[in-house]
Amino acid sequence: MMKWEKLLSGGRFGDGPKSGINQESGRSEFEIDYDRIIFSAPFRNLQDKTQVFPLPDQAFVHTRLTHSLEVSSVGRSLGKGAGEFLLEKFPNLQNLGISSSAIGSIVAAAALTHDIGNPPFGHAGEEAISDFFRLHAEGKVWEKHVRVDQWADLINFEGNAQGYRMLVSKQFGLKLTYATLAAFTKYPRPSLIAQRDIARKSQKKYGFFINQLADFEEMAEVLGVEKISMDTWVRHPLAFLVEAADDICYSIIDLEDGCTMGLVTFEETLKLLKPILGDKLDKDKLKSRTQSQNLGALRALAIGQLIRETVAIFGQYEEQMRKGNFDKALTDMIPSAKALSEIAALSVQKIYRSKVVLEKEAAGFQILEGLLSVFSNALYHHFYAPEKFSGKDKSILRLLPEDFPMKGWGAAVNPYPLLRALVDFISGMTDKYALNLYRKVNGIAFPGG
């Protein structure tokens, strides 16, 4: 069984074990994680990545940045609540310098980064990158040059794995604690495994690319995260809280955005939230406020109730999590689970399949496919089919970042790291940057015009 003493280690890659307060800054190691993320470039880029809706000229809706801040806030509350339970159950944790606030900081930091690996245009962007390598001739040419497990990564792009790659990469200098990285990892397995257990939520997707396997193994060993099989691990218990924070926010806040955008009526919204709010719903107060004020009040009440229910369920299943016997979404186990399911069903019907969202997704497919095609062709021609290398290819390669790895490739060299760098470049773009670059490389817009 996993032990909290190890699971809450404040150590980092390259450092020895740490816990408690950092003597130089007076902050816990996990508060340092949070601050590093806030000031990082990948986190700032989330400002121009849409959550569900395209960025509108009027009416506030959520970007990936505002969504991540809200998920982090909910995550902190969940972590502190769970921390109070853990300190009461395991008083010796206090002797190690662990407080409920420190546990809240782990969940808050991990939740802050939960979307950091998402490409432009959200889930449509993930599919577009996967489809490029899986279906398009320009992408499929690489298959014969890489290993089977590496190809599995490329044809099934996963934002969670991209996020883990970014968080452990020296390029961004975040150097987060092992505990925060493990709480971030909802899917502790690589893309290609012998057999997926569909009953385990943690195996629904994958959490790291094959070239981050050594990083993940080191993290798991330090924290005492146990293996289920040869190629899959148990979730860190705090990862369940990060997942719950995301589930709570997108369920309630996407509904709020849908109402703000006029896709769902206020009456429908109220009806869906009523089972969660119970006797906390005061209809008389609704009459004296604007719809926007009412939505904000209802959202706050609903999230507060869902936090309380989730902390209670965490306490109920905490020991089973450490044994590796519990592997479900906490929000599927709480009293309000049915209400959340009904919100999800309506959101699919009226929000996620609305015209404005589908138009954004269609544009995302076109833009990312086009960018990958142009840059992939230029790289392939330059290193693996030099007889086809053109003046256009030369110009395209000059648009790659200055630190892009342009040396050491050739017909006898496995190009997987090169392709990972290309996907890093494309997936790290904001929506607007991707759109503008697509227009320029395709001659739709003239640079400087």
From TrEMBL:
UniProt cross-references to CDD domains, sorted A to Z: HDc
InterPro entries per UniProt: dGTP_triP_hydro_central_sf, dGTP_triphosphohydrolase_C, dGTPase, dGTPase-like, HD/PDEase_dom, HD_domain, PHydrolase_assoc_dom
Pfam families tied to this protein: HD, HD_assoc
Record GO terms (molecular function): dGTPase activity
Segments forming domain HD/PDEase: 60-260
Gene3D superfamilies assigned to the protein according to its UniProt record, in alphabetical order: eoxyguanosinetriphosphate triphosphohydrolase domain-like (1.10.3550.10), Hypothetical protein af1432 (1.10.3210.10), putative deoxyguanosinetriphosphate triphosphohydrolase like domain (1.10.3410.10)
Coiled-coil portions: none
GO terms under biological process: dGTP catabolic process
Record's keyword terms, sorted: Hydrolase
Protein's name in the database: dGTPase
